[in-house]
Amino acid sequence: MTTFDRYLTLRFLSTLFKVLVALVLIVSIIDLIVTRQQDIVRYQIPPTVVLGYYTTFVPTILFEYQAAAISVLIAGLMVLGAAAQNNEITALLAGGISLSRIARPLVVTTLLLTGIVFAVQETYGVRATETHARILKEYFSRITDHSRFGVSWTNLGDDWTCHVLQFNIRANSGQDVYLHAIRDNRIEEIRANRIFWDEKSEQWLLEDGRWAVFDRDKNWEAVSKRITQTPAPFYERPDELFALSKPPQAKTSHELAKDIERAERLGMPIQEHRVNYHLKFAQPTLCFVIIWLAFPFAMRLRRGGITLGFGVSICVAVVYLILFAVSAGLGYMGKLPPPVAAWLANVIFLTVGIALFYRTPT
Fold this sequence. Notes:
By secondary structure, the chain is α+β, with helices and mostly antiparallel strands. It folds into two domains: 3-140 and 271-358, no CATH class; 149-265, no CATH class. Helices cover 61% and strands 17% of the residues. It is built from twelve helices and six strands. A six-stranded antiparallel sheet has the order 1-2-3-4-5-6, with no helix packed on it. The protein is elongated and about 95 Å long. The mean pLDDT is 89.
């Protein structure tokens, strides 16, 4: 590493840190004033809780709102723009050093940053998201959610399928239950008024229903018995059946992959979750992709200063977020394969960035 490499890298990292802190503070202050101020006053939330809320909100700002990648672009434009304005890059080019060689330290640095962002996202990011959700639920959401929805679970233990017309996920209980299992020579069918998870016995219990068996050897005549309360004929726990209801940001990529595999076995729709799995790798990679746009823009806008560089960064970020939202949305709807939906925006930006980089006048 040459003296200029160290100089450029240190300036970039210093500027990146300042921009990251600034963006996190800006988003946090806006969220505080616009979204949380009334709740804090209304519910008299302690300052320590508010501090914990915004501390655990940082990973959301950095990764979900793409502040980390935007900061890389802003820092790159500021540092490279200043180097171009001060004729430092011109001097290097005149000395026979190519633009590719000048770009190498920042490209390597952002590649390392991509790995760091992914590691932080998989560790602190997961824990912070869980804590943030708990604080939000405990202090900022005082209205209990009693919403009910229908659920269906297929390929359960012993080949059972279960349909619940109205289910309350907070209480782990539901009403209007229908279960059935098709055997070689019989069909079993259960209709019950209620199903709920019993923490003490760690099993699902059925209440107020009938269990019927249709036997082929008996000309499909039904033999039924009344149910007052009995264990359900499957053993899957609520955390298995509702694993995919937990947001992907609160899971590591390995945990999400296991949940997707389990959900696929249970016959649940998993297209959206496959897209989210690939996004766990695609989103951190944007830090490496976006630096390729900083070089050509900095060289072309060297006279514009910080204001123009910041404006360009915002425009690029908006274009990326729109493209990202469209491709991810098409992936969720099944119009694009999950890997394509997750990586399309990155591939387009990287292609455009490299093309502009090699077209940059030197």
